[in-house]
Amino acid sequence: MPQLTMGQALNQALKEEMTRDDTVFLAGEGVGVSIHDNPMLPTAGLLKDFGPRRVRDTPVSEAAIAGLAVGAAEAGLKPVVEIMFNPFFTLASDMIVNHAAKLRYLSGGKSTFPLVVRIKSGAGFGAGCQHSHNLEAWAAHCPGLKVIMPATAADAKGLLKSAIRDPNPVVFFEDMMLYFAPGPVPEGEHLVPIGQADVKRPGRDVTVVTWSRMLGVAFKAAEQLAGEGIDVEILDLRTLVPLDRAAILASVRKTGRLVVLHEATRTGGFAGEVAAVVMEQAFESLKAPLRRVTGPDIPVPASPPLERFYIPDAEQLVKAIRGIL
Amino acid sequence: MPQLTMGQALNQALKEEMTRDDTVFLAGEGVGVSIHDNPMLPTAGLLKDFGPRRVRDTPVSEAAIAGLAVGAAEAGLKPVVEIMFNPFFTLASDMIVNHAAKLRYLSGGKSTFPLVVRIKSGAGFGAGCQHSHNLEAWAAHCPGLKVIMPATAADAKGLLKSAIRDPNPVVFFEDMMLYFAPGPVPEGEHLVPIGQADVKRPGRDVTVVTWSRMLGVAFKAAEQLAGEGIDVEILDLRTLVPLDRAAILASVRKTGRLVVLHEATRTGGFAGEVAAVVMEQAFESLKAPLRRVTGPDIPVPASPPLERFYIPDAEQLVKAIRGIL
Amino acid sequence: MTIPKDKMLEMLHFLMLSRRFEEALTDLCRIEGKIPGMMILCTGQEAVGVGMVAALRPEDVIITNHRSHAHLLTKGADPKVLMAEIYGKRTGCNKGKSGTLHLALPEIGAPCTSTVVGAGPPIAVGRAFAQQYRNEPGITVCFVGDGATGEGSFHEALNLASLWRLPVIFVCENNRYAGAQRQEEHTRIENIADRAAGYRMPGVVVDGNDAMSVYTTALDARARAAAGEGPTLIECKTYRWRGHGESDPQLYQPKEEIAAWRALCPVARMRDAVRARGLISAEDLKAMEARVETLVQEAIRFAEESPYPEPHEALEDVYA
Amino acid sequence: MTIPKDKMLEMLHFLMLSRRFEEALTDLCRIEGKIPGMMILCTGQEAVGVGMVAALRPEDVIITNHRSHAHLLTKGADPKVLMAEIYGKRTGCNKGKSGTLHLALPEIGAPCTSTVVGAGPPIAVGRAFAQQYRNEPGITVCFVGDGATGEGSFHEALNLASLWRLPVIFVCENNRYAGAQRQEEHTRIENIADRAAGYRMPGVVVDGNDAMSVYTTALDARARAAAGEGPTLIECKTYRWRGHGESDPQLYQPKEEIAAWRALCPVARMRDAVRARGLISAEDLKAMEARVETLVQEAIRFAEESPYPEPHEALEDVYA
Ligand SMILES: Cc1ncc(C[n+]2csc(CCOP(=O)(O)OP(=O)(O)O)c2C)c(N)n1
Ligand SMILES: Cc1ncc(C[n+]2csc(CCOP(=O)(O)OP(=O)(O)O)c2C)c(N)n1
Ligand SMILES: [Mg+2]
Ligand SMILES: [Mg+2]
Fold it and tell me: ipTM, 2 decimals?
């Protein structure tokens, strides 16, 4: 299987879907002409391939970008719009939350809003809290939206293609550090169903539920613990909404122990949802308290040692796992 | 003690703080001249009492209203601004989340942002999902903000006064149905500390953690169950951030059983945070699975039977409690 | 330009229908428990919606706001399904999910009524973009109030619409108030239409109580849009006879102001024009009035007799 | 108006300082691992910040954006604490928490640098409101790019500032690009200043490469603001010599365009003007250059020698 970075895999997904379906178009700040000259980025080269009708650079106007998607989707197009950095989700949030998510319901099921909002996310590039602020939990707390946050290049491709074909509004969070992380990616028609978690590493002793970039941290910790005879199961949610409760419950019923790992800040993070689901439905299987390994409740700081402190690492995860064994 | 509705209690808090401190001012859409002529509303009469310097009607511009608060707070004023309905939090969210909450941190602690954003919340008045959409979980997932959501008139007064005196940005959610609910309210200097939950009804058998309007539902269920010899402890969080973990844990350690009740939609709601805290720190005390009683994962519908279906009621709570006894 | 007789009569019909539909609502929402939620009426401003929509074609799309009744009726909404929706009945155009504030009728080209002030323009931009993208003949019309032009989304949308020369018309229904704030309390400019220059877009001011002026202005703007010449901002000066909503006691609206504008009634104005031009006999006018009355009474009866949705139906229609 | 000699020399100093400060940054950020994050420079546009801020008084406040170095240096920022912050050091003006993108120096009246495009104007409105509320003599200046004027927040803020006649000046630093989008790719208007009319606010276009013009225009606007006559929108036409950030290869910027604008160097222009008016000797100019160089080198040394914050310091300063 070809090795691609996640950025390239997303690029392939966009290219394939745009080729397949003329109603798919891209819009956003710099999705066409860009300040970057990097083939690893999801929209690289697409303006050249598909021309300015399909690839639309916009003014710096996040509300209008999201509104464009809402209106065009209602008309039957399949907009794929980009929000440049996760904190700017705020600026598009009225259109996404009060409109994309609700207008189908408000129409009594008459209209559909098949749009994708790609949001570039994650910390790790030293730009501070106005560029790094993971808000997937916001999107997940909004009925009507589907919420995806892939961890591997293959999943990114397969889920973006599924998202574009889904008749519902999908918020698709892409971790920017992963754009440069390679992995095997199936060529052509590779679809990953929305709403299916994936056991990325089967294990016996403890379940680590995670998503996006933290999958790498989970693997690192799992390898380290494997040396000590501790067998970690890693469940990559991939999709937060709809949540694959069955997969979470199956894993926890097997291992009896749960750690939830995410990069977003702790209080109100999506780990709480996972915890609640498990506590509601797999209570009797639990052998130990829950542990959450997350970003601390601070804005993402800019200075390298501070930012490193912010981002959860394998050491913290190992410690958390040891603490409940 | 005088009986006031929550709206009157909030009005009193505003009046007292404005009298005490000339730096306190109000701004928002219709906080002065209003389309309502109802003395039960929090800002009723304040323009008359304090004049147009202190009570500022604004254009329909939520981002500017919130930005006004951010800038004025940095300068040492104490803005109390109003967002007319909770869904419009989206429009102010960049200013609140990326600025009010983060600028102190970004200044390295040099600046403070002592502002209050009052947000009118809750379902029950038939206006549908673009007017009713409880987003307290969003605010709670944002380090730098304090988040308050009172249930009684007395707490509303005491907490709003504390919020206005707090040197941090506070998001203060007011349930509109409660504006008309009366209760005893201490006169004058009545301060409720931010960050303290309140046992509104002590009980032995099960802990119901709730806040805002759902407190009434909890009481109704508790009374019904009391007749059957089931003794419900009701813990009113009052403040979501900072969260009174000690109070939650103390109650759950006593009763061994937990139901979290909120009006907001279920997935990603703040019940998850409460669940996670308990599962982390009071795991051994738990005798039964968690139950969540919340709004279903749908936008708030307009039609009366549908809206009633949306809002959690005592019957659901009773059933949930019975299910874990 | 002379407006054809049929168009004149059509506009008169919709003016009378909108007025009577809302007069009925005024009465109905006084009856405790009959109509849920807020009741927001366009009484006195009907000429804007009627004149504007009368200039449109079936393939055209409107994106409207909280004050939508005249817009929707003129676009062809069946008064029955509107009324049933306003009642919260299952037979309403949105199965009771939207109520009066978000009436959505994609089947007549009125797919989105947002009650978030200022949310219409970006969505209209998207709708018009789709028309341009697919080279369709239709255009999009977006209704906003004067207050809505204070929202940032209005600005972003106009900039983008002009940049891409989208086939869209922004109609500012300036009724002098945004909630309880008079125009001079929410902006210092006198003509909202002057904002158009900030986007290199034509801006036009028109008498919003004169359906004929609105209609002819709309035709021009429609022609521009359809010809690929881009958007227009049309400001219609009018007035809100009633409060913001029916629970508003209108304390801030001077009584003389209301009276002065009532004298400029857009329905009477059109009726007089039609009569003056001899386009309708007294008898036919009576018949028209009777037809309108029947439509309204049938709508009420339909709504009254319709069932409420079953509670669990609330769970439907979230996802496709 | 003749600008006093001291002011001319002050502006020349800050032009040279800004330029050298950023030239040093250009070099430093080529060294792997030295400077974290993005590096966004105002090289070529320094006259806007320098001319504008030179017209201000100590009690005045500036709200700036991602391209802030000239603004902050001229307002009186110590190059050492700026440089240390850019390095991410504990001795930086914000203890390493903000980095280059959000430099905050309330102690010199520069309390907020937001990198959220368009976020400055509403905050500036709040800051100016406080000045008006307390009857203070100071005013507020808000810097935005041309691209930022596409954000809704810009519109809301200008409307409110004009409505309340706040003592604020909005400075649009039009460097022809918003990211990789040329002005004509993000708006159809030619002069951003024309938007001012949409708020009944004066709008002025000025040569943004001429610090003297910027300065005199700023003085006028400042006088208006301080006199309670309300806000002004000043558009300064200038150009970004470098890419959006230092990692931008500028493929979309025509080489000839860059060359043409380099020929209009704002630093050289001021130097020539100062020399031509005989305000400085060749010797004194040399000394000034040397002083600037010393400041920059000291700043770098200070930053280099300063410690990084301890990791756990990340937990401080969230709440007061
Ligand atoms: C974003 C948002 N803010 C506030 C409101 C509350 N609100 C509803 S209508 C209205 C006034 C709108 O005024 P205008 O745009 O002039 O429309 P009109 O009601 O006069 O037709 C307000 C403030 C809202 N619905 N949406
Ligand atoms: C809300 C928001 N959207 C997008 C960005 C990414 N971004 C940073 S600067 C910039 C271009 C801004 O252009 P302009 O306002 O002209 O300022 P300039 O960079 O030219 O000084 C963009 C799109 C951002 N920081 N904030
Ligand atoms: Mg109005
Ligand atoms: Mg620019």
Answer: 0.98
